[in-house]
Specification:
The complex is a heterotrimer.
Chain A (H helix, E strand, L loop, with lengths): L1 H13 L24 E3 L9 H5 L5 E7 L8 E9 L8 H5 L5 E3 L14 E2 L1 H6 L32
Antiparallel strand pairs in A: 1-4, 2-3, 3-5
Chain B lengths: L7 E5 L11 E7 L2 E8 L7 H5 L4 H9 L6 H16 L5 H30 L3 H21 L8 E2 L2 E2 L7 H24 L2 H7 L7 H6 L5 H4 L7 H4 L20 H25 L19 E9 L2 E9 L7 E5 L1 H6 L2 H5 L4 H11 L3 H5 L1
Antiparallel strand pairs in B: 1-2, 2-3, 4-5, 6-7, 7-8
Helix pairs in contact in B: 2-3, 3-4, 4-5, 4-11, 4-14, 5-6, 6-11, 11-14
Chain C lengths: L1 H9 L2 H33 L15 H11 L10 H17 L18 H9 L2 H11 L3 H32 L4 H6 L14 H14 L11 H4 L9 H26 L15 H22 L5 H30 L1
Classes of the chains: A alpha+beta, B alpha+beta, C mainly alpha.
Amino acid sequence: MKGIVKGLGVTFKNITKKKVTYAYPDVPMNMPDRFRGVQHFEPDKCIVCNQCARVCPTDCITLVGKQDPNSEKKVKIIDTYDINFEICILCDLCTEVCPTEAIVMTNNFELATYSRDDLFKDLHWLENNNTLVRSENSTNLQPKAKPKPKPKATKEEGVK
Amino acid sequence: MSIRTEELLVNVGPQHPSTHGVFRLVVKLDGEVITEATPVIGYLHRGTEKLAENLSYTQIIPYTDRMDYLSAMTNNYVLCHAVETLMKLEIPEKAEYLRVIVMELNRVASHLVWWGTYLLDIGAMSPFLYAFRDREKIVELFNELCGARLTYFYMRVGGVKWDAPPGWIDKVKEFIPYMRKQIEEYEKLVTGNEIFLSRVKDIGKYDSQTAINYGLSGVNLRSTGIDWDLRKQEPYSLYEQFDFDVPTSTDGDCFARYRLRIEEMKQSLSIVEQAVAQFPEEGKIMAKVPRVIRPPAGEVYSRIESPRGEIGCHIVSKGKAEPYRLKFRRPSFVNLQILPELLIGETMTNLVTIFGGIDIVLGEVDC
Amino acid sequence: MDNMIEQLSIGSVSLVTLATAALLLIVLVFVTYGIYFERKVIGWIQLRQGPNRTGPFGLLQTVADVFKLLIKEDTIPNNADKTVFKLGPIISFIPAFVVLAVIPYTENLYFANLNVGLLYYVALSGISTIGILMGGWASNNKYALLGGMRSVAQMISYEIPLVISMVGVILMTGSLNMIQIVEGQAGGFWSWNIFPQIVAFGIFIIAAVAELNRTPFDLPEAESELIAGYHVEYSGFRFAFYMLSEYVYIYAIAGLTTVLFLGGWHAPFAFLSFIPGLIWFIIKFCSIVFFLFWIRATMPRLRVDHLMGLGWKVLLPLSLVNIFVTAIVLELLK
């Protein structure tokens, strides 16, 4: 009986304690800066090096580059860039390898939709997803002075 | 006239509140007494080991997060540790400290989930909420450290991804006394409760020989009196430096396993306390590792103590960037094998108690 | 019985119907806000808010829930015994409501003043068990069957100590009439039955919680073992009826405990008797309801065999001893 009475005491004491629940949909959740949310993509920075697509463990990134029309040299710019959030595990590897921080993490995490098709996010969506961008991203940054696009970027995408 | 009786075949799961995931147990009932139990697993099988053969070592790490999703840190570690052993890497001290801190905090979090859900199985609602309130604090710490709440992907071959953010160590320091107080409250709420005791004492008993025969590890083994904790027996990382006990019991019943998990939480907290006290402010968090990790050809088996028991990783490397074969020894899977034997002759009620007491994670069983 | 016939002849039939409808309304309001209160209290204990989305402070949550249940599709499993399946909830609910007739709220506010009121209560409340067994059996579901069986075993085992523990109170008052039982407890809280009959009170509370199928005795519907027990196949308004009868029984048991042990409408101190009796009744009633919720938030569930052991080996002998001791003491004091 003693144990039961003690237990009753503990639960009774908790009635007046402060509630610990979040008022989430009413009050937005603020995630810490390092939070791995949905990626933000900046097409201007991308050098079509394909590293993100190659490092992705689930092959959820598809990208296609094209010849830069403003350049005489063989410079690639991004044409399409899609992330399939049905299979993306938000592991952070794409942002980690990106040499120009073209793809970065944001703290946004609300991806729920009514259709699976909506989870296929294209370049424009990712470009517009530009709020709450994470401050530390790539560990693979190139020296800013001369971004050197790699010639082998034309390799078919999604291959490790 | 004799009454015709027949055995009742009941499907417990794959959707059942106390199978903790998608586990199916086909039980034959004579009245309420179980005469036969057949576990059916594989509903959550994702073929991690096969997938790993086509992935680089860094890419495998997020897959390990999803095996034992309650203690992703230990899973991260076992893979990194195996690769590091193969490559004979020297890990910076600061990285090791961070690893120990997060692994032990993760152990506490994992045991908290176990504690809450176990009490929920037994029929008490509030402990579940209390446990999750305190686990939330650990999860928040992890979120701040590595940016995820469940699938941390914090460790890398050669170190850890992130250094502790400013003030993080202090938050851990504050958390330890708080958690100690909470554990005291848990014990007050549950451990002395007579109804709880009558539910778990002398239930699911087995002796040390059976435990060894089934290859049990972790708390399931230590509850039979065998002092086997890989943190002590084969110290990895920095565990040799820390002063902690390995609680054992000789009862071998569900209550012993309950007590040991509570004790382990306290011990883990004391390890974290020592680790944050000695934590080096300066230092690197990554060893010098080549961009593409290509361990030399060879085999390695590394094993560590996860919250559920011995988790092992066997890598066969042919010197390529992908492993030739990768095998995880998952403690939940091994520990589950004893279940059919324990269940025979027990009632439906004890099924839940015994099954919960083993503490499995379905992501790890099916892998 | 004279009393009742007299009443029937005085009051017109329409008045009786009106009063019954009023009682039904009161009970429904109680059930609605009893569930709301339960969820709130358990929420607070578990550091949550409880329902707070529907209506101000979530006050309309139960209304919404019940409405949802009422507009749900009425499903009956294919292999179920359809007649029994439909009858189960009705048989379970009717006695729960009918027993309320004998509970007196104040010396003037009651519905039936039977001189065998307690017997009436006990006899009718036993019928509910049959409804639960019918539901469990007719569903043709293994979990439901196990739940129904457990429920019958449990309710039969606990009905006996429940009744026998009341005998002590009956001995003290010398009447089965509830109003007389309350009148016997007049004059300060020390003359309430809870003190001379503390053993009976303990047995009564334990057995009553078991009768109500509530934690820690909620084995028939143990959600972690039997999913939901006897009502696993029920949905829509049939399920609502089972839930309703469960909460109406909480009302009945809380009322009965107040009447039998806590002095009904009497104030605990003479100087507090300016507060109307009905308020005192409600206060006592609510604290018992709260106690039930509080227990639910704290306790784990008992095991079937322990439950039976407790009922037959502890509570039954204890309640029998209580009768003898009460009788002997009463005889000596005479």
